[in-house]
């Protein structure tokens, strides 16, 4: 009301939102009024931005005064999604801004819907980094993220006749209210050139003269914590040319050449590589990695020097860096270069500091996913770093020799060569490679996996040699997700019900409190309220499906969902095969039998890396099967299948609250953790899954009997792979394969490689053991139907999922990192 608004402005130094929103529109956009939700979004966002900057400044003034130890999260990806709702809620401004927008004739949700996602990441690894920033700020930990300000983020996926097509993600065209360009805050980053030894008095120094230089320009993205005055920062670097253009060439009339430097520089931060799990050995990718690491380390060292001068022995008490996978691992060599070549420290002192400051997180077990750069490529692009890595490797292998001196000479040599950071390419003996994971382990204090089973696989298999040498370096830090974005803000209806039931909203910052919901799990009145929320969320998702596909789906059906990057190891294929089997069963049934069937709406979403041919074929199989079954009048109310194009953070925020069953069905031992499983769990969605990644810990917290667990276990995989040739496939499997090959879903030539990959031992070998788990999966799906028919049992389980999700808050994960690895302590500014 006007009175309340007047009272508010009288007590606050911030401008009244209504006036401020129209003011922003007028002076930043030249608009007299908000004519569209997009206008309203722009006005609102630029207004909220100022509140964010106020809390950012307060926080950083405080931290400057206190000078606490900082954690710097180095990551090539931050999958932030939208910011408006999150910022407004985290800052506690929702009432104010919702009122203001109402006065302007707008509804907050519609306005928020005009924002584009910041999609500077591929999938799990990038979204984890975003959740971590939310928790770091919420826990008042002095910490920043550092990464790349890609001009083009994750590509937009569209379907063309059922096939994936990629379109560029032009996300910055209307400006970005959530960033602050720090004018003048930029660092030089060099590439190529030569390395020389020179005399400086009687000291020999190394001088690297790069042949190419660019600026790294800083952009700050404030990160508001929830229910705290702390606002942290994500600093992203944009690549800019050192000189605007080559004036000589310009004056000579050669305009094209004059622009070449600019293009070459800007290319570095131009696009996010759309690969998830399989690295691409492209030079530009290494350039990106070095670019952001070099700028970030210079930035941190320059701040350190401003307060501590050259007392670098104090650096490990003031700064530590977390390497998000091997992508920023060149930091090991870069920190050595800065300390030795630039600051003049001796090698051993620099090495002690470097290894104290760095820590490495592994996110994948797939051997082909571990980054290795050809020595040739690295020596050309980063000649000094290549030398430094050689020296590190010499020291390392020499030390190893001493450490393993009891071994027989032959055995010792074998072990040393197996652990050498530089080794030959097993598929091309001519080529030498730098193994980035090995460099990260040798250069770090702590190495961690992202779920209990995964950390054990890291210790026992992937990095077992290193584990034997440094057992105490290896840790587990089970992933988590922010309960703000993934429950409280994306599902306010469920959040209100939880708050009302628990008597307070303290669970948002202390998710262990959710366990008190267990006492209500079997209460019919509570179940009824719980079911009503789920149904409302299903209606909302159904409206979205209608908008995308034009079809009305049955909202009384079980909503069965698999959303994640498309990958053979995640086995979307297995899901489709079971849908085909379900369809064939329904077709055989009498109308009487059909009345007893559990209706399902199956949704699959996810992007395939542009060059991942098999993943693209899987997408086409989903759309082709959907085309057949969604048109079948006999069964379409009982079974439908839709592919949801352009799966992203924002879509996930609508899908997850509506899900009743979610699929996490990777070949056991291949999914490091998974994090969407945690988001589904928080929202009371049941899980069908293999004994893999965080599924295991989720099942333990929820009650193993409440989860539909199926399939072979990780420790059986090696043996089963060896025996796969002799595996006798299920007759139902054989039947479905014949259907696909015979053209039941059209496009049979296109599907041939897909069929061969799991059947023809000469071609595929079914590496991910889809056939081995097929029968067990069908059984588990039957069990799902059985439980769904007993709605009170289903709802009891659903409540038990949310109640058991306390462990999977990223607040818990970040507290563990802070205590066991970073040794950073909270430092909260005054309100
Ligand atoms: C590497 C080089 C060049 C281009 C791209 C890459 C690359 C990008 C992303 C490689 C791997 C990438 O991501 C891997 C990833 O997302 N891993 C997932 O990490 C999650 C968070 O820990 C886990 O939950 C998932 O199980 C794991 O698959």
TrEMBL record:
GO terms classed as biological process: glycogen catabolic process
UniProt xrefs under InterPro entries: Glycg_phsphrylas, Glyco_trans_35, Pyridoxal_P_attach_site
Keywords in alphabetical order: Allosteric enzyme, Carbohydrate metabolism, Glycosyltransferase, Pyridoxal phosphate, Transferase
Function: Allosteric enzyme that catalyzes the rate-limiting step in glycogen catabolism, the phosphorolytic cleavage of glycogen to produce glucose-1-phosphate, and plays a central role in maintaining cellular and organismal glucose homeostasis.
GO cellular component, one term: cytoplasm
Family indicated by similarity: Belongs to the glycogen phosphorylase family.
Cofactors named for this entry: pyridoxal 5'-phosphate
Record GO terms (molecular function): glycogen phosphorylase activity; pyridoxal phosphate binding
Source organism phylogeny: Eukaryota, Viridiplantae, Chlorophyta, core chlorophytes, Chlorophyceae
PANTHER family recorded: ALPHA-1,4 GLUCAN PHOSPHORYLASE, GLYCOGEN PHOSPHORYLASE
Pfam families: Phosphorylase
Chain positions with N6-(pyridoxal phosphate)lysine modification: 679
Broad EC category: transferase
EC number: 2.4.1.1
Protein name: Alpha-1,4 glucan phosphorylase
Catalytic activity from the UniProt record: [(1->4)-alpha-D-glucosyl](n) + phosphate = [(1->4)-alpha-D-glucosyl](n-1) + alpha-D-glucose 1-phosphate
